[in-house]
Each structure stands twice: as C-alpha cells, then as structure tokens.
Write a structure and sequence with these properties.
The protein has three helices and seven strands. It is of the alpha+beta class. Strands 1-7-6-5-4-3-2 form a seven-stranded antiparallel sheet. Strand 3 and strand 4 form a beta hairpin. The mean pLDDT is 85.
C-alpha cells in the first residue's frame, strides 16, 4: 500500500534556527508523535520506538531513522524504516526550507509511505488517515519545538 502526502508548516523562526534544529537528530526524532524512546547513533542516524494505533489495533513500532539536512539545496530529507505488529513501514519525507523574508520560515513538505503486512491489508482508509496525521503532526511538532528553541535563544 503506497500513500503520498504534502503540506506546509509555518515556523515562527528564521531559517538559520530551523537549520540548527534539523541538524540535531535527537531533537528531530522527538518530534514524532507518541515517541517513547530515541537512541542516537551518529549525526544522521537514530532508532526510535513509537506507540502506534490504527483503528482498534495498538502497539509499538521500532524505526530506524536517517535525517539528511542539505542546507545548500535548502532541503531536509528524512528516511524512516521499521515496523511492528507484523507490518513493515518505509517512509520518505522531506521539506524545502523557505525563507519568508520576515524572520519566519515555511517548511514545504512531502511524504511518501509504503506499508506491507496485516495492518496494510486490514487498515485501508484508517491507515491512510493515520499516516497523514503522523507526517503532519511531526512537522507541526518541529515547528513548535523550533519556535520554543528560538525563544530561548532570544
């Protein structure tokens, strides 16, 4: 099952603050909804355990995450692989970091998810809605965390 999403998130902080944030893998991983544990391996790789619920099915998923900030290209990419409950997930998301020229930034994001296993078979529409919420909430959380860190720097 393949799923595609896109959207925008407005961040009340300058692009330089956004870039400082996305280069910290633990801070990015903590933006995943319902994250329970994060283990950072190096500047771009980490593992995360996340509580996931699709319909009545709930459980823990373990993910390997790679965060690839590319400041010269103005883009940050995130690759997520893993799964749980007998299902596997591959997610690629990315955001163009756009300077609004007024001290704020827009994250213009896209995401593509592929899921295999029992949840993909029985989840259908509920899985589609949940995946979109997960991606959207991650970028919302990033905005909130970035703005909070910008406030502590001011």
């Amino acid at each position: 099952m393949k799923l595609n999403y896109s959207g925008q998130e407005q961040v009340g902080a300058a692009p330089a603050v956004v870039w400082a944030f996305v280069q910290d893998p633990e801070r990015v991983a903590r933006c995943l909804p319902d994250v329970q544990e994060v283990v950072v391996h190096d500047q771009t790789h980490m593992d995360a355990t996340v509580q996931v619920g699709v319909g009545m099915v709930r459980g823990k998923f373990k993910f390997k995450i790679e965060v690839l900030p590319d400041e010269p290209q103005g883009r940050v990419n995130v690759k997520v692989q893993g799964g749980g409950l007998g299902s596997l997930v591959d997610l690629t998301a990315g955001a163009n970091v756009l300077d609004n020229g007024d001290g704020t930034t827009t994250l213009d994001w896209t995401g593509e998810a592929s899921m295999r296993g029992p949840l993909a078979t029985v989840g259908g529409r509920a899985l589609d809605v949940q995946a979109k919420k997960l991606i959207q909430k991650t970028f919302e959380n990033m905005s909130t965390h970035i703005e909070a860190s910008a406030g502590t720097l001011a």
